[in-house]
Design goal:
The protein is an alpha/beta fold. The chain has 2 domains: 7-128 and 287-303, 3-Layer(aba) Sandwich (Rossmann fold), CATH 3.40.50.1370; 130-285, Aspartate/ornithine carbamoyltransferase (Rossmann fold). The chain contains 10 helices and 9 strands. The protein has helices spanning 12-27, 51-62, 84-92, 107-114, 130-144, 162-171, 191-199, 211-214, 234-240, 282-303; strands at 40-45, 66-70, 97-102, 119-124, 151-155, 178-182, 205-208, 220-223, 259-261. The strands form 2 sheets. The protein has a 5-stranded parallel β-sheet with strand order 7-6-5-8-9, with helices on one face. A 4-stranded parallel β-sheet has the order 2-1-3-4, sandwiched between helices. Helix 4 (107-114) links the parallel strand 3 (97-102) and strand 4. Helix 5 (130-144) packs across helix 6. The longest helix has 22 residues, at 282-303. The protein is globular, with a radius of gyration of 19 Å. The two termini are 14 Å apart. The relative contact order is 0.16. The model has no long low-confidence stretch (mean pLDDT 98). Bound molecules: N-carbamoyl-L-aspartate. N-carbamoyl-L-aspartate is lined by residues 51-52, 123, 129, 132, 162-163, 225, 263-265.
Length: 307
Amino acid sequence: MRHLINILDFSPEELQELIDTANDIIADPAKYSQICRGKKLATLFFEPSTRTRLSFEAAMYELGGNVIGFSEANSSSAAKGESVADTAKTISCYADIIAMRHPKEGAPLVASQNATVPVINAGDGGHNHPTQTLADLLTIYREKGRFDHLTVGLCGDLKFGRTVHSLINALSRYEGLKFVLISPEELKLPSYVKKEVLRAQGIPYVQTTDLEGAMPDLDILYMTRVQRERFFNEEDYLRLKDSYILTPDKLQNARQDLSILHPLPRVNEISVAIDSDPRACYFKQVLNGKYMRMALILKLLKEAGTL
Ligand code: NCD
């Protein structure tokens, strides 16, 4: 059974297939509108979400399928003490495919080991968020036409930001990538990501606290929110939350073909004045996420023999 728990579960060729399918869906949505008729997606969300859950649900509806699920741990049997393993076995009796978000790192992996249907990691704690990476990849591909030879700036909460960890993993497999890691000292990229991904593969990176200094070199600027829910104390969060606020004046030295991404939700990291700049891609990214989730559902259901 194929699952998507870590973005590295898919080869670069498979990611390209998903991108090609997504582009085909964008070109001809009617062709796909009944493919999943009679199939059910379960969205099991133990943590808050707007885009990820609703884009999964919209994706399944646009494929002609149906959706069941819950959006709060408190409204599920987890509140009674049920294990993730038992929940996964149970939901496998009701649904053809599962998307799970959980505050504990590794919970979707445990679900995949116990489910009898494909499981998709829709975000596990501060660890990974592979389907956000699918949205990011389609956005980069549509904007830049390639994944190689790019200088990618990642800015904000690189410690707890799971989208950043998955994106670095995904991009680590292309040639000529450079990363500029821009964060406060306290929110630097975890050393396991630097060691196991960047240094292990000889990928050049610099760490800095200076966003404006890094700006002129960047092809892509990936802004992130400081992850309040992963902090141990509110004081640290309040001190760090506005470390980076992208305003039009900070883009003075940026390239004309810069692409500005953000997984959203945004708090203060990007001023709304940037929204009308042609370099702002974050709302396109939202839409791209829905198409990539459609492509992903199709791939996993086909591989499971359900379609
Ligand atoms: C991200 C997440 O949940 O990690 N949101 C999303 O799914 N687009 C980013 C965030 O919450 O900051």
